[in-house]
Amino acid sequence: MQDSIKACLDCHSMCLRMATTFCLEQGGRHVEPKHLRLMLNCAELCQTSANFMLSDSPLHGRVCLICAEACEACAKSCEQVGDMRECVEECQSCAKSCRAMT
Amino acid sequence: MQDSIKACLDCHSMCLRMATTFCLEQGGRHVEPKHLRLMLNCAELCQTSANFMLSDSPLHGRVCLICAEACEACAKSCEQVGDMRECVEECQSCAKSCRAMT
Amino acid sequence: MQDSIKACLDCHSMCLRMATTFCLEQGGRHVEPKHLRLMLNCAELCQTSANFMLSDSPLHGRVCLICAEACEACAKSCEQVGDMRECVEECQSCAKSCRAMT
Amino acid sequence: MQDSIKACLDCHSMCLRMATTFCLEQGGRHVEPKHLRLMLNCAELCQTSANFMLSDSPLHGRVCLICAEACEACAKSCEQVGDMRECVEECQSCAKSCRAMT
Description:
By secondary structure, the first copy, chain A, is an all-alpha fold. The first copy, chain A, has four helices and no strands. Helices cover 82% and strands 0% of the residues of chain A.
């Protein structure tokens, strides 16, 4: 579970930072509503997932499953937008880690 | 959706306030680990659900479903602990509202 | 304090919703990095302020003061960007309410 | 700033985990209202501080300052309660790191 908490915190940090700095500064496809929303939603769900694991919630597996789906959707969107390889990798790695918790 | 956002915000406020003031001050069964954790987890998930609806996330239905389960578990725990009727009602009402979003 | 909690929750909802739906869909000045960041920061600080008041934290006055500053900066930015009167009013009202808590 | 973000995330994880698992399971002084509230408030403010640094908010210095105060109060409370050395150290280290950002 330690690994999965770390993956969620890392993915939260990456998505929030990229959304509010890189994407906003790049503009164009990077601020397309669906993409930026996904980035912010993914960041928030990673935070919630981490918090549910940290507090040993019986619902953590359920939250991790949706978190994995958010990460996969975010990775896909980052690939389509381009220039976001680091974010793609963090999301894919977090998705894998979250699926292992379900 | 407006009603459901309001229900989530109300339930978040109720659970967070009751957990950190009433339950901690009462002690005894009110600070039993499973109960207090459920109260805090329910508060956090209600907040996340509200945020996903506010940002029109395509995952909001999925988050609302887990939120409904957290609210139902929290209502049950509050009933067993006793002296928490207001919280039971808020959780049941939020659970119903969240299920309508799924 | 009840009024101030309500003002923070209302302002959080308004800023998060406007940032992730209206602003992203409008584009142009509405997605200018400083503006959108302020909207998201204001939303988050309003949430934290509400949570500190709900849990009766001795630090709530300190958090409310920064929240008031975030709301004032956000109101100003919304005025400059234009077409955001509702958000301006919510931010000004929350700033006033938060200042009364300090 | 990277170090300070990491310190906040580490302190958030430590305080949330200890509050919702160790403290609740120990009971007694560990669930004394002032102590547990401080733990939860400290965890939340560390999260908000991290998010404000990650999103490059102009208000991050202000938020870091209150975060440092919350961490110092939490470290003191953990020392008085006892058996919480790890948490004391994490809070002191985060307080120092946050003060450097102000």
